[in-house]
Amino acid sequence: MSTPERDQTPTVAVRPLNFSDLPQVIAIERRAFPAPWSLSMFVLELSKPSEIALAARRGGRLVGYVICARYDEALHIMNIAVDPAHRRSGVASALLEEVIARGGVDGSYTLEVRVSNTGAISLYERYGFRGVGTRPRYYADNGEDAIIMWRAIGAPWEA
């Protein structure tokens, strides 16, 4: 009888996103999204001192990132992406957990997500986000609607 193999996937290390990461970020952005952010959009966001911008690394390689803007009443998760080859392996969860740790577990968070992105919606729901409305034709590439999701102050979340 054989024993199950142990998961040999290296752990995810999350650290602040730096300007020097942008070539790898742009490469992931282009693989992950049909309408990727431009380099100038990332530079602008990283230039803001109140942003939470994080990189996820696995095995010495950048495999995901998140950009979160701080507003008066909430933190807005503006962009979160995982390299398609590393999806469903805990990268997005590690990024969300670190955003919540840095932004405050009792803070309010918001984001928009494509109505067709059921995997992301399920992930966000596990962290206490709930759909509160839609933005019709939000995505310029195909006119798809976005679900507006909020994680309210003190909402329970699972790690």
Q: Which range best describes the helical content: under 10%, 10-25%, 25-40%, 40-55%, 55-70% or over 70%?
A: 25-40%
Major β-sheet profile: 7 strands, mixed
- Total beta strand runs: 7
Q: What is the approximate shape?
A: globular
The CATH class designation is: Alpha Beta
Write down the domain tally. 1
What do the pLDDT scores average to?
90
Short description:
The chain is of the alpha+beta class.
What is the element layout, followed by pairings?
Blueprint: E1 12-16, H1 22-32, H2 39-46, E2 52-58, E3 61-70, E4 75-82, H3 91-103, E5 109-114, H4 118-126, E6 130-135, E7 146-151
Parallel strand pairs: 4-5
Antiparallel strand pairs: 1-2, 2-3, 3-4, 5-7, 6-7
Question: Could you walk me through the main structural features you see in this protein, from its secondary elements to its overall organization?
Answer:
The protein is 26% helix and 30% strand. It has 159 residues and is of the alpha+beta class. The chain has a single domain, classed as Aminopeptidase. Strands 1-2-3-4-5-7-6 form a seven-stranded mixed sheet. It is globular, with a radius of gyration of 16 Å.
